[in-house]
Specification:
The protein is α/β, with parallel strands linked by helices and about 325 residues long. Helices cover about 40% and strands about 15% of the residues. It has helices at about 15-25, 35-50, 60-70, 85-90, 95-100, 115-125, 150-160, 175-180, 220-230, 240-245, 250-270, 315-330, and strands at about 55-60, 75-80, 105, 130-140, 165-170, 195-200, 210-215, 280-285, 295-300, 305-310. Strands 1-7-6-5-4-2-3 form a seven-stranded mixed sheet, sandwiched between helices. Strands 8-10-9 form a three-stranded antiparallel sheet, covered by helices on one side. Bound molecules: pyridoxal-5'-phosphate (PLP).
Length: about 325
């Protein structure tokens, strides 16, 4: 029974992904990513994103973000991101470590989103003694559960490229954003100007798998050695790739995300006092009282009564409805 709205990280694994892992467990295969599963995954990513790609599977989003930012930013570089960005607040300096010391420049913006004008101002304000502009990091869906439209992404990427920054997209919840918008993945990435995406799977049904997808071909030679020497090039890579291949087969990634998003809409419609637009699988609301029997996190950066409720691929309608009934009881 799912009584847990803490995070999509607290949920289990899609059966399709476990079955793919079991299938990948037979026989021998070339190690360190030279296997057939990893090659099929690369081809699938190229087909889904309609672009030639190099791929680097990793076990955590933090690794994917830090390696990608590290590949884009010089040690003396400046990396621009939203003030609430996971890369800034939740990775204990991993992007700074992997870049050899680049400076994160957090920028405020409503609803978890960076705005193109604010980004341009922040970049223009960087003096040569402060840091050299090198990277803009965006999150899709954002940490506030909102989603950038293709036009918003393009405007941000245009500012970045006009200032010699490459664009990293933290896609821990990219599937939820793509499912919400219903547009081609290319529209949310390279066609808008994104140079590399860290596509999340763990929060949306995988066991532990994310993949760096580089659209800019010059990033491959920057990423490959960093991926290896930081210990993220798994010898039995097929087990990471098998999870990701299953995730991207028969639209599992989008089916899982559509369900999680629908559960968030159901939750938002009934809970009341919602404080951010609900566009993915995360609901922020004011809940003055604890709801016994349910677990979720307080989110005090949005105010003293604010809580975050996260739904997942296996959140059940009846659990949402039972939670809403419990909320009505205490109101
Ligand atoms: C926006 C965002 N980026 C990245 C991550 C990935 O983190 P982890 O290193 O735990 O996989 C998370 C997980 O909470 C996240 O919310």
């Amino acid at each position: 029974v799912t009584l847990d709205f803490r995070s999509d990280n607290t949920h289990g694994v899609s059966p399709e992904i476990l079955e793919a892992l079991a299938r990948a467990g037979h026989g021998t295969m070339k190690s360190y990513g030279g296997d057939a599963v990893t090659e099929r995954l690369r081809q699938r990513c190229a087909a889904i994103f309609e672009h030639e790609v190099s791929i680097f599977p990793v076990v955590t989003g933090t690794a994917g973000n830090a390696l990608t930012i590290g590949a884009m930013a010089k040690p003396w570089g400046a990396v621009f991101c939203h003030d609430e960005a996971h890369v800034h607040r939740d990775e204990l300096g991993a992007p700074e470590l992997f870049s050899g010391g680049a400076k994160m420049i957090p920028i405020a913006g409503a609803n978890g989103k960076l705005e193109a004008e604010a980004l341009a101002r922040a970049i223009d304000n960087i003096g040569l003694h402060f840091g050299r502009t090198s990277c803009v990091s965006l999150t899709q869906a954002t940490e506030a559960g909102t989603v950038y439209t293709p036009d918003e992404l393009r405007a941000l990427c245009d500012v970045a490229h006009a200032h010699e920054c490459r664009v990293h997209l933290d896609g821990a919840r990219f599937a939820n954003a793509a499912a919400h918008l219903g547009v081609a993945p290319a529209e949310l990435t390279w066609r808008a100007g994104v140079d590399a995406l860290v596509l999340g799977a763990t929060k949306n049904g995988a066991l532990a798998a994310e993949v760096i997808i580089a659209f800019d071909p010059t990033l491959e030679e920057e990423l490959a050695p960093r991926w290896h020497r930081s210990g993220h090039r798994m010898s039995k890579m097929r087990f990471l790739s098998a999870q990701l291949e299953a995730y991207l087969t028969d639209d599992l990634w989008l089916r899982n995300a559509r369900h999680a998003n629908a559960m968030a809409q159901r939750l938002a419609a009934g809970v009341g006092n919602v404080i951010q637009p609900v566009e993915a699988n995360v609901v922020f609301a004011r809940l003055p009282r604890e709801i016994a029997g349910y677990i979720y996190y307080d989110w005090t950066i949005f105010g003293p009564d604010a809580v975050r409720l996260v739904t997942a691929f296996d959140t059940r309608e009846e659990d949402v409805d039972a939670f809403l009934a419990a909320v009505r009881q205490v109101k």
